[in-house]
Amino acid sequence: MKKTRYLVLAAALLMGLAAGCGDKGGAPTGVQDPAKAAATPNASATATPTATASANSKKTVYPLTVKDASGKEVTFAKAPERIVSLSPSETEVLFALGLGSKIVGVTDYDDYPAEAKTKPKMGNLQGNSEAILAANPDIVFAGLSLNKKSVEKLTELKMNLFSVEPKTVDQAIERIALYGRITDTQEQADKVIAQMKAEKQKVVDAVKGLKDDQKKKVYIEFSPGWTVGKGEFMDDLITIAGGVNVASDLTGWKQISEEKIIQSNPDVILFAKGVPDLEKTIRGRSGWDKISAIANNRVAGLDDNLLSRPGPRITQGLYEIAKAIYPDLVK
Predict the structure, then answer these.
(1) Which of 270, 283, 317, 328 is deepest in the core (most CB within 10 A)?
(2) What is the mean pLDDT of residues 121-128?
């Protein structure tokens, strides 16, 4: 349970936000998470002209040079054979691409798929530099969960570090394609992408008939007192699902104003169900019993990992969000 809570709480600090509240931004003290720490607005790294692949064979041509989300160029002489992942989201992507046998290290919190639990542990989301060095990886994939000190340490050890930062569902899909090119698993990447796009389209089709005045106002709480504004994938999930995020006037991961949520009067409240007593906390706040979502019992707990990991299952998370908001439309 502690691990689950850690991953859900993680969603803020690694955005690079300092502790704070309200519009000042911030994150719970000591919380860390994959795929959070703004570097560039685009989640997927971009290939330079040296990055080419045959459209027919779907085979990557090496050397392949790509930029990661921090803007750093990384050149791959061949497909990496030894991979360390420092993000549960990256680990899910790599396994989805059929690269389980090449993964030589994951974080202590990687739990999906089940095989990830059997991989050598590289420490928390900041990584244990000694363990990573001993694993002798060709590449270390991270979701920009690393703070500056960790990046500097791995750089000193001459580790090849590649970071990404999906901010939307589409960027999470683009990351699958990117990793497919890097690892020469493009055909498998296409299969994963096709499934993700189909899952997304199912939701889009289900809610496309909604008029603006029919869209439900949604509040999401992924750890006690924390929600998300625009510019992050959770906000994108709510929007695609046909909802209106009541915190969309904010940017990034924010500590809430309880009074502001009362004034926003959301129709639906979503929360991370793996966080102990979070539903009880939400329902028990002073004055919140008058919020439409609580008065009408439209409070739904969702799988923490589907909410917090922008990996290959993000479109499953999208479906669960849409179903919670519009149970009559999304079947």
Answers:
(1) 270
(2) 92
**Rg for the chain (alpha carbons), in Å?**
20
Task: Give CA–CA dist 305/308, Å, rounded.
Answer: 5
Q: Rounded to two decimals, what is the model's pTM?
A: 0.83
Long-range contacts of 49-56 (CB under 8 A, 24+ apart): 50/75, 51/181, 53/181, 53/186
What are the tens digits of pLDDT across the range 243-287?
A: 999 999 999 999 999 999 999 999 999 999 999 999 999 999 999
Name the band, by pLDDT with cuts 50, 70 and 90, for residue 144: low
Strands in 139-298 per DSSP E? 139-142, 161-163, 217-221, 226-228, 244-245, 253-255, 268-272
The Cα–Cα gap between 319 and 241 comes to 8
Please work out, in degrees rounded to the nearest 5, the angle formed at the alpha carbon of residue 3 by the alpha carbons of 106 and 104: 10
First to last CA, the chain: 30
